[in-house]
Design goal:
This protein is an alpha+beta fold and 848 residues long. It is built from 18 helices and 42 strands. The chain folds into five domains: 33 residues; 210 residues, no CATH class; 125 residues, Cathepsin B, Chain A, CATH 3.90.70; 111 residues, Immunoglobulin-like; 178 residues, Single Sheet (Histone H3 K4-specific methyltransferase SET7/9 N-terminal domain).
Amino acid sequence: MSEQKNEQPESEQKQELEQKKEEEEKEEKIESSHEPPIKRIFNHEKVTKYYKDQNPPLTNRQKFIDQIFPPIIDSLNDRSNKATGIDKINVQEIDWKKASELFPKLCIFPNKKLMIENNESEYIEFKINFKHNKGELFSHYTHFFHAISILTSFPGLIEKIFKTKTINPENCYELYIYKNGEYQIVILDDYFPVVKNTSSLRFSKPNKEEIWLPLLEKAYAKTHGGYGSLITCDTSSVIQCFTGFPVEKINIFDLDDEDLKIIVKNNLDNFIFLVPNSEKCKEIGIIDGKAYQLKEIFDLESNNNEEEKNNIIFKIYNIFENNHYKGKWSAEGESFTNEIKTKVNFNSEDKKHIYMPLEYIKKYFKQIHIVYKLFDSNIKQITVSQDSIFIPQVFNLYVPNEAKVSFSLIFRNSNSDSEMSEYEQSLKQIKKITPSCICISEYNLEEKKFINFDGCYNSEEGPETARNLKSGFYIIWTFVAYDFCTDPKPIEYDLKVCSHEYFKLKLQAQDTKYHLLKNILYSGIKQYQGSFIKEDEITVLDDNYYNFTGLGFKIIMNPLKDYFQKWVFKTQVKNMALLYPYSKFEHFEIQVLPENFFLLVGIKLDNTKKNTFEMKSFFKTLKYDEKLIEKQENLNINFNEFCSDEVQKDERDFQYYQYLNDEGIILESQEFRTDKVVYDHLYNNYTTYMNKINELPILNQKEENKLKFFEQKNLDGVYVGQVNEKNKKYGRGALINNNTGNYFIGYWKDDKKNGKGFEYDKNGEEIASGEYKNGALNGNGKKILEDGTRYEGMFLDGKMDGNGIYFFKDGTQWQGFSRKGLKDGKGTFTDNNGNKSDMEYQNNIRIE
């Protein structure tokens, strides 16, 4: 082919080049005429860190061979999972070959189609054809294929993962991955494992001669311990590797029926995966190690109480045809009646979906993995250092607007990745157990109480979760059971918080003696289990696993005024550690004071095991006598101190990538949010007010440069506009009253109206204007009074004071003097015909 092309006449070659150039220009024109299809997908150009600090090779036209992940047997193993996948790989039957040897017309991506039928631009189409793409080991690593098929549903995402987008002479390729809480660049050569003495890829095969899929496969293998990790991985970890989506893992045995239904219904817009229970799943043909995605839930109505448990039907997807699924809920099963099939829109031709009731989910699956579709935009990452890692940390979170917010704990161990061999890192992963939790509680400033307390827990790696939070203040309580961590212990951890909306986060305090946690838990218990609490007798409640936090508790509430109780406990916890009253003795005593409570708290130690938080005990009730009462710690806390919209300056801000918001506006993760991003956010959400602010001229350019746009909310209203370095209202801004809808537009100084300003009612009609000083009209101004009279004249501290004119609703007017808001003195009255006469007022009363 190349020889024939070289023999073409020069005129034909020139014509070909011109035609190619025209097509490229046409393609660029088409793309630029449409808004970017990618929403909130990171701009990797800001990523600078390389995986394991590997240096990119110099461009010297030499073929690149990766020394960190070389084409040898060791790169096939899966050390992080005790080599469970090696037997399936059969490493002795594998050779390594370069992609250029396998594919003469090598390319990374499929050809881009410029036009489709409706004349709209079409981006590169990535497809996973399982019959065509499956390699020799396809059936053993369907999790990976399932994850990649999901990623292809995001327009443009696969292209974004590749820093190198074309074949190069060095055969060196760079991809972006998410590892250890941050985005990194991984460098790959183009050697792939093949069946010995053949050119058949042992793992995935490309569509035609494009190698994007084998390169993604290799990137995951290199960063997760070897090609064996493709067999032992789960779908959620692969998606997270290439997107950074937070993943929460919840044991099904920790959920009651109602919890399970709520979790599924609340997360159908995210990705939900089910992990089979290997001990029981074979009973109905569920295959352990395969990827099962929960796609839909049907809440059916039934008049038969006996069938009530089967009213909840789950629709589950697997990339394989589910020919093995059997039993009474299979397509031919007795329970899956035609009536139910109609209600769930069953399609007999669809071989990739199965249906089962809630009892099947709880029996045949052991875990739910929730992958939250949240591309990071605004990020705060605060470090908890080694000297504080074993102390509960309290963070203050302020969310100005309703938003989805993700929370992650990211651990760092005593040996950095760059100092450890691949094998040592694998052992570290095998041995690491780090019981840790994140608790999230909203604090209502007005009612001074905590509400909606929940969280997440993990023992194998840092816990992650995401929540839809409404505007308000939140306490984030994090804890690592450091004494129970297996080696190597983490030396520090980061709390990473992300959201598309901007927010404020600071490390507020340490909850050394669990006082704050006890108050938060107590509020949560009253909220969720209040019906069990007695007002006239002592109540005892307990729970092994509180709202996914990993915490268990036993609480004794004493509403009595004249009696208290003494308790003696013997701990019988299983797979848990007692935190409060942090006693390591087998027996210990407590006392529950009158009109008070006592709370015992424990944390789960291993995420994969069931736990019980039980205390064998006996107690005696005693008449209150101060002499019998031991000295107690003061548990009174000023919770308002934990809730502040001020921003602390010691937060770690990550600036290594950018994002696009829904409008295609670039969001940069710089200090809190950049002025431009905040301004764009305010303009999109407060367009009317921002337009009026923009009409105000800049008074001092030097001072203007020191100001930034901001949003401040409180119970009465919201301020939109400029603030100074102390976050005080300063410059141009608007104050909007939540109760009336009225708003003020004008100049500010140190949180007070100062300079020219305008007041409007909720319909946008001007009701006052003039010169403001110290927060009120002072000097010349205008105002519409309650009876509709319009006043123009002098003001003092917001009241009419001095010469002015009153324009009455009937068309007449009076010009005269006012004092402290009242007409007071001689003046001139003008009727509707223009006739003038003297008229005098005293304290707003006309004198005849």
